[in-house]
């Protein structure tokens, strides 16, 4: 189990922002950013990672998700990136690897672009954010929940639930998450300027992608990796969009043992 | 006769005192994503002594941090550099910039500065500083190449050698080695036969992910000391923490 701390983080132009941060383990620091599926989509992975390695994994809940409050002026992925950079400054962390899934991956890319010396590497897991001709991001807001499950997992059955049967409080949280996704990422979940800006990055980057991702397909992932100089791309087998949920061991191994991987085997 | 001494600031950045003059090598005073000293920066730019010259072996950020070093109090300080550094140095406001090619030399206040060959991922030169019978060889982060064996014949006895030892490899470049390793540094020590050798360029890290994805290197300078004990037993090897001044 992790411990959760409420931080008041200074944010230029907005003022202090309350951020709830769950923390797991101790050692090499990682900042783990969830996507639209909410913080519960990464906490199990954080527990697994911290239980098997000497790592300190910090999992913030993006303001507006999980029933938390979002300041009205905090309304963009770039704003979240600035918030988390300020959090790392506040915690005086160094040699931080930022890991992000889906929209969390987009936030991760924007954090890298801020070029904080505290951030030494990034891992993008089935990230959204760039525009790739011929590889559109699935239109999340037009999908039924069944369709979301089908597109998000290689094998969706273990992860399905009926949202209509959730208690009212949980349904309110889910609705809040949906609203937060729309505010931060927009309906398209892309920024047409992002891919070009990524070309300036010099940060070590690992791009992990589920071979069965139906939200953003592996071709999109390869384009993401190609947009970042020297980024390495790795497919995860029998894995969908939420790789850290579906095949957490593959994700941990890909990160921890990345020096041992023959990346020449993976097409860019 | 003033003492010859060296103070390692960090990585390959040293203060070298020789012939009563003080020189700075390969300035690196900041950090960037994926570029970390892995050890303290022992002296900040405001605390640097008055410098008689600055030697810069090549343009890589961890050897040529001109953006930070531009805050040094006197940008008319003489810079002696690889020719690929000249434009950047002038762009950062340094007004006295002299490129040196291998085996070219000049004199600064009684100290002869000679550029010596090197091989790295980019064009690089190394340097020998001589005052009287004492000479310091600064090896930047070169590979061991045959031309370096010419140094004793061409420039005389070396008293103190500052040598890289991490054998840095670049994984995405087919694992290309770009810096001499501990064994090679010991071989060079046996060639130069200095009284004292100090390893540098070993604590450097690209961070958790960068050390896995981009580079791999030997971070233990003890390997150099062990190899030198076998190959160059007459040389004293000192592993020096940043900030410690040692005299020849």
Task: Summarize the largest interface: chains and residue counts.
Answer: A-B, 23 and 19 residues
Count of β-strands of chain A: 8
The stretches of 5 or more residues of chain B where confidence is low (pLDDT under 50) are: none
User: Helix count of chain A?
Assistant: 9
Largest sheet of chain A: 8 strands, mixed
Low-confidence stretches of chain A: 263-268
Structural write-up:
The complex is a heterodimer of chains A (268) and B (248). By secondary structure, chain A is α/β, with parallel strands linked by helices. In chain A, 35% of the residues lie in helices and 21% in strands. Chain A has nine helices and eight strands. Chain A has helices at 40-52, 77-91, 103-113, 145-152, 168-185, 194-198, 218-227, 243-246, 248-256; strands spanning 3-11, 15-24, 28-33, 55-61, 96-101, 119-125, 205-210, 232-236. Chain A has an eight-stranded mixed sheet with strand order 1-2-4-3-5-6-7-8, with helices on both faces. In chain A, helix 2 (77-91) packs across helix 3. Chain A starts with a strand and ends in a 12-residue tail after the last helix. Chain B has 248 residues and is α/β, with parallel strands linked by helices. Helices cover 17% and strands 28% of the residues of chain B. Chain B contains six helices and 17 strands. Chain B has helices at residues 66-69, 86-91, 151-155, 182-192, 207-213, 222-231, and strands spanning 5-10, 13-18, 21-25, 53-56, 79-81, 97-99, 105-108, 111-116, 126-131, 134-138, 160-164, 169-170, 176-177, 196-200, 215-216, 236-237, 245-247. In chain B, helix 4 packs across helix 6 (222-231). The longest helix of chain B is centred in the C-terminal third of the chain and has 11 residues, at 182-192. The relative contact order of chain B is 0.17. The A-B interface holds A 28, 94-95, 97, 112, 115-117, 119-123, 202-206, 230, 232, 255, 258-259 and B 30-34, 36, 171-172, 205-214, 216.
